[in-house]
Structures are given as structure tokens and as C-alpha cells.
């Protein structure tokens, strides 16, 4: 559950970078956005592993 909260926090924190990149063309915001998406991918993979373990151990 803690990892899911970190996903929500990360998405909320990157919101301004999304606007800056897509609407204003800020390249640095695009780099920060790509970094955040990579972090989301890692967290999502961890959550998938955790769910699979929990499901298989029940």
C-alpha cells in the first residue's frame, strides 16, 4: 500500500512538468518528466511482484 501512495505522490509532483513540457516547450521539464516516468515504471514493477507474491501465498 505504501508503494501505491508513492505512485500517487510522484504523479502529483510531476504535474507541473507535464504542463511546462507540453504547453510551453520546456526541454528541462521533459527530462524531469522522463525521469519520473522511469521511476513510475520501477515502482509499478515492484507492486506487480508484491501482488503476485501475496496472491500466490494465499
Structure commentary:
Helix 1 packs antiparallel against helix 3. The radius of gyration is 15 Å and the shape is elongated. The protein has three helices and no strands. It has helices at residues 2-13, 15-24, 27-56. It starts with a helix and ends with a helix. It is 90% helix and 0% strand. The protein has 58 residues and is mostly helical. The longest helix is centred in the last third of the chain and has 30 residues, at 27-56.
Report the average pLDDT across residues: 94
What letter string, H or E per element, gives the SSE order? HHH
Please compute the radius of gyration using only Cα atoms.
15 Å
**Residue share in β-strands:** under 5%
Q: Describe the biggest sheet?
A: none
The number of strands is 0
DSSP summary: helix tally: 3
What is the oligomer described by this structure?
Answer: single chain
Which residues form runs of ≥5 with pLDDT under 50?
Answer: none
Structural category? mainly alpha
3D shape: elongated
**What share of the residues lie within helices?**
over 70%
- First-to-last CA distance: 17 Å
List the helices and strands and how they pair.
Elements: H1 2-13, H2 15-24, H3 27-56
Helix pairs in contact: 1-3, 2-3
Amino acid at each position: 500500500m505504501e508503494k501505491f501512495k508513492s505512485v500517487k505522490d510522484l504523479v502529483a509532483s510531476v504535474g507541473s512538468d507535464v504542463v511546462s513540457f507540453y504547453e510551453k516547450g520546456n526541454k528541462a521539464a521533459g527530462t524531469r518528466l522522463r525521469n519520473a516516468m522511469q521511476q513510475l515504471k520501477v515502482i509499478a514493477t515492484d507492486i506487480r511482484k508484491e501482488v503476485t507474491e501475496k496472491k500466490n501465498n494465499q
